[in-house]
Amino acid sequence: MSEVLRIGCPEWRVLLHGFVDGELAAPHASRFQDHLAACPGCRAEMDEVRAARKVIHQEGVKWRPPEALRAQVLSMLAFEESAAASHPPQRPQPQKSAWRRALDLFKQWSFLPAAAALAASLFLFAITPSQTLVLQDEILASHIRSMMADHLTDVPTSDQHTVKPWFNGKIDFSPPVMDLVKDGFPLVGGRVDYLGGRAVAALVYHRNRHVINLFIWPANSTAQTAAVHDGYNMEQWSDGGLVFWAISDVAPGELVRFRDVFRSASKG
Fold this sequence. Notes:
By secondary structure, the chain is α+β, with helices and mostly antiparallel strands. It has three domains: 4-57, no CATH class; 67-127, no CATH class; 131-267, Phosphorylase Kinase, domain 1 (2-Layer Sandwich). The chain has nine helices and six strands, in the order H-H-H-H-H-H-H-H-E-E-E-E-E-E-H. It has helices at 13-20, 26-38, 40-57, 67-86, 98-106, 113-127, 131-148, 160-166, 252-267; strands at 187-195, 198-207, 210-218, 225-229, 232-239, 242-248. The protein has a six-stranded antiparallel beta sheet with strand order 1-2-3-6-5-4, with helices on both faces. Strand 1 and strand 2 form a beta hairpin. It is globular, with a radius of gyration of 24 Å. 24% of the residues are buried. The model is unreliable at 1-6 and 123-128 (pLDDT under 50).
């Protein structure tokens, strides 16, 4: 799959996998199809993804795991054996451990589908990114896409009293909309976006010539975090049953200031 990841457009990759899985909402699927018609790289990547999934899901095939994965599993088994020798159990164990059962499979030269599933599970566990990283990928893709596809705002206005009611009936919550022009962050407008499998509010602010996208949706309280993702700064916080993700290419200190003045204004 490393070759696949270099074919298409990084900013469309999240939508590509959602499109292949049939998980995109109709507006996003339509936008991706329009992009696909004009992008041979993304068409090639989609063909590669579909071909890989077809191979993975076929039945009755024997698989051999990569040598690096096999070596890692055997190393972990050796550690288990060493620990067991140092601390022998006080009573007989009725079953072999999961690692012992894995060892029996990895000692074979050919592997049945069940063993292949085990190997694939271990491999995917090792390389699957956390949910936070996946979400950051989606946020980054949405931020870049909003500036590339001439779709920065659905309601282009600096009037917070126009933007806030515009969301009524389009999403299932009411996002706070703050006018921060006196703090140097003028409101540009808002739009409905799609992150993490749901519709979210996106507020757009400017800082000089830089764009700040602020994504908002209902979620349990989370710890305040900051991140740098592919050169873009991100700030995340939660208030009043909502989670907020701000992203921009402004300096980290500027984005922290935006976070602080937005939180202060929303509580005032």
